[in-house]
Design the sequence.
């Protein structure tokens, strides 16, 4: 895992849940929530849990106001880019509109080799259902952020209705994408409730605990 | 098309396209922005109309215009924006024009907050604007139900020549859920819109879209004609779901997201050996009072649960006709009650700690 | 029997219903000009007119084309809604100064801003006629109304020049102010309307024709004095002419 991981993707590609899981599992220093797209279901809603886990949460300049849709980005978001001792995960908002936020920190990036810029893909999203859709999406994110996507996350899911074959199908499509762009599948996400999926998936397996979405959802 | 994973606002937008919506007119407001954003791209791809208007007031008047010209028109907003649309909605009802309005409710009053709420219940179920009228109002509890109802809603609006309100809260707008757009929805017998002022007079006399009546007797006649329409809705088109009510000792009444949460509460209570059922209104106008006639004698108490301070409560009281004690539990401010909160309320009632 | 020929007849753009306007009011003339323009340009059959709120609210009965009555000030929004779904239709709104310049100013500006292919017929008589002679945004300084009983002062706002204002909007294609106080100006006004409808027919964008009008009843004048007052007081403040013509040059 590189010092900094930035996670982009469409709505429902699992960015926030993956960010929180990765941060907790890997004892990351900073979780930077740059989501100005979603008004609900953001990692900033987990301030208490993250504090308990010793993860520093960077969110809006008005902290703890989960009822706010004011798009204030905290300047503190730049800290991991300039301090080489800090590990961080950046959780972007959905779509290219969410990814665009990153640009304002880019002039402070010292070494792009320290950054993994991942695209989380769920093939059950209509826009990323096939190779072409995913390539178009990645091209759009790269154009918006002026950063190259360095890896893929296979987060193919239909929430509770996900089956193992779905993830395998997602993997096949992502392998094609990876070949075209010469990038790896870095993670495959399997929900905790689907632990029995035995297939050996590419990349590291994230056994996902849903921290943000409540069980009635 | 198999199932896809979509955000509620997007799914509702696509459902409108599938329903043959010709035009969308709207103004940004959280938490429904993904709906116009989705349509700004996909209406054009489907050869339809998308206009971002200067205000909610303008948006609903554009819908009024398009509907008058015979098109299937949609607008969406969230609570404060819906309040602004009441002028045009009233005109639509008065001029007997169809149209669909999606309200992704947030907390109020005033600017309130952006978190989910059911605080617009009374505005929605009492017409909302000036004058004597109602909206056929549907309150889905899941994205799938929202998709299916929106697909049908344009037919319902055309059938009654009356606006239809889709009443969801921010939770439904923002949540992700697998949905399919292939479900068959009920078909309504629709007549051609020979009344439309669509600027094509090659085969007919002029048409006028109007809600102004200078003669009180004529206006009264018009009001009674509208009333007859609402009576048909009340008599024949109430929709509701009875959940687990057989032999239940207590019945929850909840709609939309709140019903979804109450389902979990019912499961928890079942594990504790308590038989709890639910009446889930799908139409909030007409209010499904018929559901209350179906309750058995086993039901000793009714618990109304809402994300408001008790707006539907009054309709339940009317429908209950003083038959059973009615209790209430609600959270407001954008706070969504946990299933466990509802459970403990039920336990209190059964233990005699909560007097109706 | 003497041979007779028809020298004048009711425009087929008007219905057979007699209009309801007061003696000396210019609505009748302006209705006739709108109707004749649409007929002469062969647009009547595909025209939808938008009635607004004010004395002209009932004109859905007076025009022979399809009509839709709009809420106060919202006619340009209603027109937008229709035009976008029926792009082949010809749409005009008919609005007074209370309707357009006050409650409906946002809708008028934004219809121009989006360069909607619609024509606004704006009738400015510097007063709320229908509701009983209250002050409007175009009421002149010193003019007495039921809500400016001592005459308008600067504290109540300086009269808004709508044509000039609308001309500043980049999306507006054609804006002209006309008057109908004598036959010569009636002819000129009709020319302006025909120009506006022609621009709309060619999908060249937003057009607005402002008419200087009268209100003998609420001004408390005879019809003749009202016309004279408009000429002596309104036209100096609201000068006639073309304020914007984005089609100039492109026809060559």
Sequence:
């Amino acid at each position: 895992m590189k010092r900094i991981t930035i996670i982009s993707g469409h709505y429902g590609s699992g960015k926030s849940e993956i960010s929180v899981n990765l941060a907790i599992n890997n004892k990351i220093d900073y979780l930077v929530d740059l989501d100005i797209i979603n008004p609900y279901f953001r990692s900033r809603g987990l301030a208490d849990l993250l504090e308990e886990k010793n993860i520093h949460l960077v969110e809006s300049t008005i902290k703890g106001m989960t009822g706010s849709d004011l798009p204030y980005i905290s300047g503190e978001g730049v800290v991991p880019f300039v301090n080489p001792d800090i590990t961080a995960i950046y959780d972007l908002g959905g779509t290219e509109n969410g990814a665009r936020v990153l640009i304002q920190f880019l002039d402070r990036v010292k070494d792009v080799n320290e950054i993994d810029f991942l695209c989380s893909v769920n093939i059950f999203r209509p826009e990323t259902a096939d190779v072409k859709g995913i390539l178009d999406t990645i091209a759009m994110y790269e154009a918006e952020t002026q950063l190259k996507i360095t890896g893929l996350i296979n987060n193919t899911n239909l929430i509770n209705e996900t089956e193992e074959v779905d993830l395998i199908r997602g993997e096949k499509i992502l392998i094609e994408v990876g070949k075209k762009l010469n990038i790896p599948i870095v993670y495959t996400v399997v929900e905790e409730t689907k632990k029995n999926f035995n297939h050996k998936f590419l990349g590291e397996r994230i056994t996902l605990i849903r921290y943000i979405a409540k069980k009635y959802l | 098309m198999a199932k896809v994973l979509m955000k509620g606002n997007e799914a509702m937008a696509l459902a409108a396209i599938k329903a043959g919506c010709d035009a969308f007119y709207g103004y940004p407001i959280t938490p429904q922005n993904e709906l116009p954003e989705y349509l700004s791209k996909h209406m054009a791809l489907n050869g339809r109309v998308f206009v971002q208007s200067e205000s909610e007031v303008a948006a609903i008047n554009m819908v009024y215009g398009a509907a008058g010209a015979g098109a299937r028109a949609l607008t969406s907003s969230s609570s404060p924006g819906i309040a602004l649309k009441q002028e045009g909605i009233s005109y639509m009802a008065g001029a007997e024009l169809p149209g669909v309005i999606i309200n992704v409710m947030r907390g109020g009053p005033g600017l309130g907050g952006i978190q989910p709420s059911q605080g617009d219940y009374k505005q929605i179920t009492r017409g909302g604007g000036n004058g004597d009228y109602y909206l056929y109002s549907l309150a889905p509890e899941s994205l799938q139900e929202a998709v299916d109802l929106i697909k049908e809603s344009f037919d319902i609006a055309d059938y009654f020549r009356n606006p239809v309100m889709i009443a969801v809260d921010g939770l439904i707008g923002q949540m992700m859920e697998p949905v399919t757009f292939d479900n068959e929805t009920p078909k309504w017998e629709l007549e051609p819109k020979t009344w439309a002022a669509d600027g094509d007079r090659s085969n007919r006399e002029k048409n006028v879209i109007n809600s102004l009546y200078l003669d009180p007797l004529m206006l009264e006649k018009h009001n009674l004609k509208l009333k007859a329409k609402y009576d048909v809705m009340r008599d024949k088109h109430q929709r509701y779901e009875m959940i687990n009510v057989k032999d239940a000792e207590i019945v929850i009444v909840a709609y939309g997201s709140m019903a979804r949460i109450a389902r979990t509460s019912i499961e928890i209570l079942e594990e504790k050996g308590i038989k709890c059922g639910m009446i889930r209104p799908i139409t909030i106008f007409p209010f499904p009072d018929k559901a209350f006639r179906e309750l058995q004698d086993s039901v000793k108490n009714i618990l109304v649960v809402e994300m408001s301070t008790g707006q539907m409560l009054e309709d339940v009281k009317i429908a209950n006709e003083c038959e059973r004690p009615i209790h209430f539990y609600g959270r407001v401010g954008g706070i969504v009650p946990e299933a466990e909160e509802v459970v403990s309320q039920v336990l209190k009632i059964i233990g005699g700690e909560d007097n109706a | 029997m003497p041979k007779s020929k028809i020298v004048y007849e009711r425009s087929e753009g008007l219905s057979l219903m007699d209009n309801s306007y007061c003696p000396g009011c210019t609505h009748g003339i302006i209705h006739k000009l709108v109707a004749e323009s649409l007929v002469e340009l062969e647009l009547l059959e595909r025209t939808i007119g938008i009635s607004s709120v004010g004395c002209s609210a009932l004109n859905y009965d007076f025009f022979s084309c399809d009509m839709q009555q709009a809420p106060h000030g919202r006619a340009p929004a209603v027109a937008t809604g229709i035009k976008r779904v029926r792009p082949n239709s010809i749409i005009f709104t008919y609005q007074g100064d209370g309707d357009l310049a006050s409650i409906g100013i946002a809708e008028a500006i934004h219809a121009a801003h989006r360069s909607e292919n619609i024509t606004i017929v704006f009738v400015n008589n510097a007063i709320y006629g229908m509701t009983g002679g209250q002050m409007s945004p175009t009421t002149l300084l010193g003019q007495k109304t039921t809500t400016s009983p001592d005459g308008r002062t600067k504290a109540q706002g300086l009269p808004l020049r709508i044509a000039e204002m609308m001309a500043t909007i980049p999306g507006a294609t054609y804006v002209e102010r006309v008057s109908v106080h004598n036959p010569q100006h009636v002819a000129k006004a009709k020319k302006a309307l025909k120009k506006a409808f022609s621009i709309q027919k060619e999908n060249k964008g937003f057009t607005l024709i402002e008419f200087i009008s009268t209100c003998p009843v609420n001004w408390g004048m005879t019809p003749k004095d009202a016309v004279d007052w408009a000429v002596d007081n309104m036209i100096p403040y609201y000068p006639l002419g073309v304020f914007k013509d984005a089609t100039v040059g492109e026809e060559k």
About this structure: Chain B has a mean pLDDT of 97. DSSP finds 13 helices and 15 strands in chain B. Chain B touches chain C through 40 residues (CB under 8 Å).
